[in-house]
Amino acid sequence: MRLLPAVVVAALVLPVSACSSGSAAKCEEAFTAAAMSVAGVASAEWECSDSFGGGWQRADVVIEATTEDEAIAVMDATLRALAASPDLEDGWGTPQEYVTEDGSIIVGANDLGFNGPPNVGEVREHYGITPG
Predict the structure, then answer these.
(1) What would the pLDDT profile of 12-34 be if each residue is shown by its tens digit?
(2) What three-state secondary structure class fits 41?
(3) Residues sharing a CB contact under 8 Å with residue 113, sequence separation 6 or more, in sequence order
(4) Rounded to the nearest 5 degrees, what angle is found at the Cα of 35, between the Cα atoms of 32 and 37?
(5) How far apart are CA 55 and CA 66, in angstroms?
(6) How far, in Å, CA of 42 to CA of 55, rounded?
(7) pTM, 2 dp
(8) Please, which pLDDT band fits residue 53 given cuts at 50, 70 and 90?
């Protein structure tokens, strides 16, 4: 009789955790695909979580640029690609910074007039982009 309750509890826990990790994986895949579609993005990795009542997103985006102006242009194109992706939710956060591989150039969304890293919805509004 003791085995039955344990089996029932496991059956109830697995679908919840599987659902959360699936959503996080979808978030990570969608962000990475959108960012990697941009010329000048050398690599992009996201970590997403549905925890804590709304979740969070963290990113490492490495760009190819030799000047700050080039880096800003790549960041601008990346934000536009994120905004255009129908797989990204408005409330999901965008990267805090974009860094060249050697770390010599670091730019952030404030270089484009944002007040800190915007969420996807704010980027869509800023550029007037409706995902399709």
Answers:
(1) 222 233 334 578 899 999 999 99
(2) strand
(3) 126
(4) 105
(5) 35
(6) 26
(7) 0.81
(8) low
Residues contacting 109, CB < 8 A, separation 6+: 75, 79, 94, 116, 117, 118
Split at pLDDT 50, 70, 90, the class of 52 is low
Express each pLDDT in 56-102 by its tens digit. 899 999 999 999 999 999 999 999 999 999 999 999 999 999 999 99
What DSSP line would sit under 85-100, residue for residue? -TTS-TTPBPPS-EEE
Would you state the pLDDT for residue 18? 32
Question: In whole angstroms, what is the distance from residue 20 CA to residue 18 CA?
Answer: 6
C-alpha 98/C-alpha 76 separation (Å) is 10
**Longest alpha-carbon distance in the chain:** 69
Element (H, E) at 77: helix 68-84
Helices 3-36, 68-84: axis angle to 10 degrees equals: 130
Phi, psi of 42, rounded to the nearest 5 degrees: -80, -40
Q: Residues 6 or more apart from 103 whose CB is under 8 A from it?
A: none
